[in-house]
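Lecture notes, continued. The same structure-token format from the folding unit now serves as the input rather than the output. Read the line below as a description of shape only.
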């Protein structure tokens, strides 16, 4: 997620901007830039890579000015290059603007503005906002605040925008539509940031803008307006967190923060991918319908959590598209002489986009003539260069080594891809597709509800933290959830855990069951629900403890459970998106009970770039 900093006041803007940007580095970024008003002229410097590259570029140059904005960019539209780095400017170069989020209607607006004569210099959605505000200012000759108010009524999507203009040297205007933005004013200074750490050194009294609000920040003062233009009384909060707590948004660990960011990760990944008629729009996949119809086999390759996402997706892809799906561990794929040709589609899933095994697997698939689509969270990562098409998850950077929000985003992205293939192949009735899209649109709200189980999970974690083995069972897509629950637990709590297809229990693993062994059962929706109940009975009969992830209000599940985490009901193929959350929380709280740091598990790296 991008970082935003803004400063206006009596002092020099540049050191405040650079310091604020450094404080936001933990969020992850791939380029950085600043704009400062210097003697009535807007000076901008933007560089791909670390903030240090930007500082080297600034060395020896005079950037003295009291108004400025800075940005660390996490690319979503356009590669991480100097040209695409923020701030962006209008044609007059008197306006500078930074942005966090996604402007969904950027294509339409870009064409309209280009037709009006605006010249674009980058491939970003952000630059559209700069030219849009310019065109409003030209037409209305109004204040920057009023131009921004009109612009936000035209822009669609989730965004935090911050802009400055040479005509108003003591003003920063910030707008929020879903993406967070915080403003504040201290003694003779005005500040803006995408996150609290950027402001903390200058003020502890901040105003987190509410959704659909615009702020005009001046030295020592903040005015807040609704998108309807009416002024509102700002809601100020006092922050007493230290810097480290502020980076984690008040959560104890990044992993917990990222678990709580899942509603946004899922919403952002779906954003702009369904049109008003309920059709799936995948501009990223540019194959014609005939090519898509000729696909006769899909192979999913991935590692770890990404593999588990693929395991869940196999069910949806096969059900909706009727194309057979093979699932391969990326590290195994090239060594098993797979059968693949130009009618094969290989889906490489990797949140980091850098996993050596997955990269090698998709390159191998490409050499065999198959089409390759990559599902990744990182724009500009290695896999984006080697794949024929890339489907980005928009989970924002993930800092905890244990993948959480990127997993949910992968599940959703893979469902979108499956729906798209089904739509292009006419393999799914339209009403069923529409119904599924509607159900997916409700997921972010349902994820919020699932997060309410946190207290119950924390309590259960106390009970089971000393266990030496855990078993996770499920059926159908629930098996993938069980595998992911077991992986999360072992990687951060160091407890031996196995994920198992529940039907396989009686073929071996049942021998492990005895008094007190915790068995987590994912009570996947019908038609497998009854079978799962029978498996849980088998487990109870051996004296093991049962921890159930079950639909809300299900009495039979309650009767069989020693502990139960209830989740709202959704279509069976969408259940992994909800059912995984209590298991992520279980792993987290068990690790905490054992005094371990969930963010940095031993022996593990966030991206595994060696084979
Ligand atoms: C997940 O919690 C693990 N850290 C690990 O299994 C990870 O999913 C795996 O290394 C694959 O990473 P990728 O998604 O970046 O390719």
């Amino acid at each position: 997620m991008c970082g935003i900093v803004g400063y206006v006041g009596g002092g020099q803007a540049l050191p405040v901007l650079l310091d604020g940007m450094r404080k936001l580095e933990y969020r992850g970024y791939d380029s950085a830039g600043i704009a400062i008003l210097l003697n009535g002229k807007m000076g901008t410097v933007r560089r791909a890579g670390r903030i240090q590259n930007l500082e080297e570029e600034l060395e020896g140059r005079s950037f003295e000015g009291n108004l400025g904005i800075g940005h660390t960019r996490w690319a979503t539209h356009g590669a991480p290059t100097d040209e695409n780095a923020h701030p962006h400017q209008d044609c007059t170069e008197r306006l500078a603007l930074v942005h966090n989020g996604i402007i969904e209607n950027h294509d339409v607006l870009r064409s309209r503005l280009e037709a009006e004569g605006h010249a674009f210099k980058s491939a970003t959605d952000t630059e559209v906002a700069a030219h849009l505000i310019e065109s409003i200012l030209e037409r209305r000759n109004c204040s920057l605040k009023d131009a921004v108010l009109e612009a936000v009524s035209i822009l669609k999507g989730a965004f935090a925008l911050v802009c400055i203009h040479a005509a108003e040297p003591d003003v920063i205007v910030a707008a929020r539509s879903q993406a967070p933005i915080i403003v504040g004013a201290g003694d003779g200074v005005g500040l803006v940031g995408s996150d609290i750490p950027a402001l903390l050194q200058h003020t502890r009294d901040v105003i987190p803008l509410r959704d659909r609000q615009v702020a005009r920040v001046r030295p020592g003062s903040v005015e807040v307006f609704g998108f309807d233009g009416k002024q509102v009384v700002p809601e100020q909060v006092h922050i007493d967190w230290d810097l480290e707590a502020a980076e984690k948004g008040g959560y104890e660990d990044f992993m917990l923060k990222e678990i709580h960011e899942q509603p946004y990760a899922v919403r952002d990944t779906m954003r702009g991918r369904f049109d008003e008629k309920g059709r799936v729009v995948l501009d990223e996949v540019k194959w014609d319908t005939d090519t898509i119809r000729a696909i006769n086999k899909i192979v999913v390759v991935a590692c770890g959590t990404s593999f588990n996402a693929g395991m869940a997706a196999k069910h949806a892809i096969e059900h909706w598209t009727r194309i057979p799906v093979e699932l391969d561990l990326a590290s195994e794929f090239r060594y098993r002489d797979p059968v693949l040709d130009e009618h094969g589609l290989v889906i490489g899933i990797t949140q980091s986009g850098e996993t050596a095994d997955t990269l090698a697997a998709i390159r191998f698939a490409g050499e065999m003539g198959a089409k390759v689509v990559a599902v990744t969270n990182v724009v500009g990562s290695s896999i984006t260069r080697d794949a024929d098409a890339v489907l980005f998850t928009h989970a924002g950077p993930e800092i905890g080594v244990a993948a959480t929000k990127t997993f949910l985003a992968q599940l959703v992205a893979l469902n979108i891809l499956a729906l798209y293939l089904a739509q292009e192949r006419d393999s799914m009735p339209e009403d069923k597709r529409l119904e599924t899209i509607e159900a997916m649109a409700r997921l972010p709200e349902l994820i919020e509800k699932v997060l309410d189980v946190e207290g119950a999970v924390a309590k259960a974690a106390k009970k089971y933290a000393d266990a030496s083995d855990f078993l996770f069972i499920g059926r159908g897509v629930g098996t993938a959830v069980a595998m992911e629950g077991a992986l999360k637990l072992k990687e951060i709590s160091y407890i031996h855990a196995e994920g198992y297809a529940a039907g396989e229990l009686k073929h071996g693993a049942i021998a492990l069951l005895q008094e007190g062994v915790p068995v987590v059962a994912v009570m996947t929706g019908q038609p497998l629900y009854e079978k799962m109940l029978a498996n849980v009975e088998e487990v109870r009969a051996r004296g093991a403890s049962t921890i159930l992830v079950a639909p809300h209000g299900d009495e039979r599940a309650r009767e069989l459970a020693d502990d139960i985490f209830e989740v709202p009901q959704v279509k069976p193929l969408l259940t992994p998106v909800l059912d995984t959350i209590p298991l992520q929380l279980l792993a987290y709280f068990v690790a905490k009970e054992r005094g371990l740091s969930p963010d940095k598990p031993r022996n593990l790296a966030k991206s595994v770039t060696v084979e």
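Point for the exam: Residues 207 and 235 are 6 Å apart (CA to CA).
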